[in-house]
Amino acid sequence: MFGIYWKRFITNRMAVAGIAVLLCLVALAILAPVISRYEPTVTNLTVRLKSPCFAHPLGTDELGRDILSRMLYGSRISLSVGLIAVLISIVIGTLFGLLAGWYGGWVDSVIMRLVDIVLCFPSFFLILMVIAFVGPNITNIMIVIGATSWSGLARLVRGEILSIREREFISATRLLGLSNWRIMLVHILPNVMSPILISATLGVGAAILTESGLSFLGLGVQPPTASWGNMITSGKDYITFAWWLTAFPGLAILTAVLAFNMLGEGLREVFDPRSLKQK
Fold first, then answer.
1. pLDDT (tens digit, 9 = 90+) per residue, 243-266?
2. Distances (CA, A) of 192 to 36, 102, 161, 199
3. The domain spanning residue 140 has which CATH number?
4. Does the N-terminal peptide bond of residue 57 adopt cis geometry, omega within 30 degrees of 0?
5. Which residues have a Cβ under 8 Å from the Cβ of 67 and sit 6 or more positions away?
6. I need a surface site. Which of 16, 39, 157, 176 has the fewest CB within 10 A?
7. Is residue 80 part of a domain?
8. The domain containing residue 251 runs over which residues?
9. What is the pTM for the complete model shown?
10. Is residue 10 part of a domain?
11. Distance between CA atoms of 121 and 233, rounded to whole angstroms?
């Protein structure tokens, strides 16, 4: 089965393009100290607001900091926030979805009502409210984004488990006397990994956009630490004559989000059971 999925993955142009771009972004983030010729927080007012040139390929900001260096180091922050926030949401959403789908009854009712409550609030404004109380730092942003974006995944996992738990192989595990947790983790969870993986891939792009929005509003990653969002914030006052301050970070956000969405849509096609039957 893995061979079938792999063959379908490498022949899916959208998935391959998405993973290729993401690997490039990850490589740039890892190699930031090697590639960067300047420290991202070091100021040099003699070259402030310098347009792109050989010494500064992407120009400099209002404090004379090199934009390329800040974007390379900022990619570490933006990608880390997206990945860790989604990891948190996956853990919470998968756990609640497993419990609701497997046990049903009052457990399902309580969890689904909690999901409904979370979905009632506009997620971005809920994040703003929580960040205003706990304070804007990288750790809090990761936790808050992850803790407020699990409800859709929980509902998805629950729906998958409601179908899987009635199949014959699950009935066989019950007859063998296996514990509920072993059945859920060993026999059910692997069968719902495909939708979880697709949802997680699409969720990273959304988390990066959320972090960028928070940083733009001043409630995200705080200066002088560079992230793509706060770079756009610092450049918005100079947009009329220093376009590179916002254009390049905005292009980086667009590229990362588009790559994650392309990978997610590609994986959706790869794991689509109807496509497998056609093959």
1. 888 899 999 999 999 999 888 888
2. 42, 13, 8, 11
3. 1.10.3720.10
4. no
5. 56, 58, 59, 60, 61, 231, 244, 245, 248
6. 176
7. yes
8. 2-43+56-278
9. 0.84
10. yes
11. 26
